[in-house]
Every structure is written in C-alpha cells, then in structure tokens.
C-alpha cells in the first residue's frame, strides 16, 4: 500500500522584478518561502533598481506575460495569487483573462500606483482599467494612503478618516480593502480591513524606527496571499501577515544593506514548507 501523494501550498506572484532584491517578485518569493509556501512568478516588468531607487524599467510584452501564467497554472496549479506592478492596460487585460479562464482563487491585489517619492507610476487609463477589471475579481486590495487618495480623489485625514476611505474603496467595486495607514504620523500604525457587508476591523501596532522598509507593501500583500493559500480566512490571513511583516521589519532594522533604503529581513524565522495531500484544496 503506497502513501497518498503530497503537494505544496502554491502561490503565484504576477508582478515586477526588483534587481536589488528588496521588493517586487524577489520580496514575494522570499515571503512565500519563509511562510512555508511554494512560490512561482509571472514577471510583468524588469527594473534596474537598488536601495537608492529605480534607474530603468523594461516592460515584458503582454503575450509573454500570458505565456508565463499559462505555463505555471496548467502544470503546477495555484492556491493564491499576489498581483503587484501592472503598468499598462494590456497587462491588466491579460491578468483579468487569466483570473477568469483559470478561475484563479484568493487573488490579492496590491495596486502599485505611486512611488515612495510621490511620483505616479501608471497613467490614468491604466488606473481606470485596474479598477474596472481587477477590483471585482480580487478577494482583497491593499492600497497605501497615497494610492487610496488617488483612487477616491481626496486626501485621507488622519486615522479617523480611514474607515470612510475604505468604504469609498469598496464602493469602487472591491470585495474587501486593507487600507494601510503607515504613512500617517504618530507612534502607532493603524490599518483598516473593510469587507462588504461587515463592520471594519482595525489592526494596530507600534511604529518601528528603521531605514530598511523597502518592499514593505509587497511583503504584506504576498504574506496575505500565502496565508490564504494555507487555508486561513481573510481576517486571520491579514493578522498573520501583519505579524510576519512586523517581525521582518524588526529583525532587519539594524542591518546595513546598500546606501539607501534597505530591505526587510524576510528570513528571520522561516518555517518548513507545508505539504498537503493532493486531494486537499
């Protein structure tokens, strides 16, 4: 009598590459591995990037992005998806097609629209396509304050404005919103999770003093996707993902990487890769 075959919890990142290793698909893969998942990628763009900033971007043709997704999904399979840098309307269309065609589950959309410097990363047409095509298809979107302000057309004034802003984002078609309040001033960071039909939930934590915060948003969204792939409900996935990010920030705060904004310590407490019976999930 043979043992039943096993499989991993499989998470696909559809995002841009960070050659410096701190954000993008590199951060996603490190996060998936640290949380005991099997990570895969479909790269939307290459960047020439380090801790000081981005010096160049090379877009991957949409047809080749589609080929990457097809290769991964049709052979290995997917339990959750993290969406990052989607820089053009054609790229958004490919991703929307893939979600529908393969019925991709547990889609986490990190709407990368605004750089840390405040510069816009995508044009209005792409933003509108992102809202129309992907908000309804994602389980949750994870904008920061700048991205949320761009989407709802107004600034968000303090912690008290987070609930209303999250509600406005739900009205754009999202099923759930994790609005990240890290850019607000104060010693406590407050994030708000709003789900359609449920009261908002607040998650608070002490602010961590660190120069090494590059890739924090990528890491949080990929950690949520990993925990969804492991079978957690969304609120628990958010709670576990925030705990992981806080640990990675704390463990990387005193490390010097490059001359600018360094990465988190993604591997501060890795767990063994989870294995499930093939029939599970």
Automatic annotation (TrEMBL):
<dbReference type="InterPro" id="IPR013749">
    <property type="entry name" value="PM/HMP-P_kinase-1"/>
</dbReference>
<protein>
    <recommendedName>
        <fullName>hydroxymethylpyrimidine kinase</fullName>
        <ecNumber>2.7.1.49</ecNumber>
    </recommendedName>
</protein>
<dbReference type="GO" id="GO:0008972">
    <property type="term" value="F:phosphomethylpyrimidine kinase activity"/>
</dbReference>
<dbReference type="Pfam" id="PF08543">
    <property type="entry name" value="Phos_pyr_kin"/>
</dbReference>
<keyword id="KW-0808">Transferase</keyword>
<keyword id="KW-0418">Kinase</keyword>
<dbReference type="InterPro" id="IPR029056">
    <property type="entry name" value="Ribokinase-like"/>
</dbReference>
<dbReference type="InterPro" id="IPR004399">
    <property type="entry name" value="HMP/HMP-P_kinase_dom"/>
</dbReference>
<comment type="pathway">
    <text>Cofactor biosynthesis; thiamine diphosphate biosynthesis.</text>
</comment>
<dbReference type="GO" id="GO:0008902">
    <property type="term" value="F:hydroxymethylpyrimidine kinase activity"/>
</dbReference>
<feature type="domain" description="Pyridoxamine kinase/Phosphomethylpyrimidine kinase">
    <location>
        <begin position="18"/>
        <end position="265"/>
    </location>
</feature>
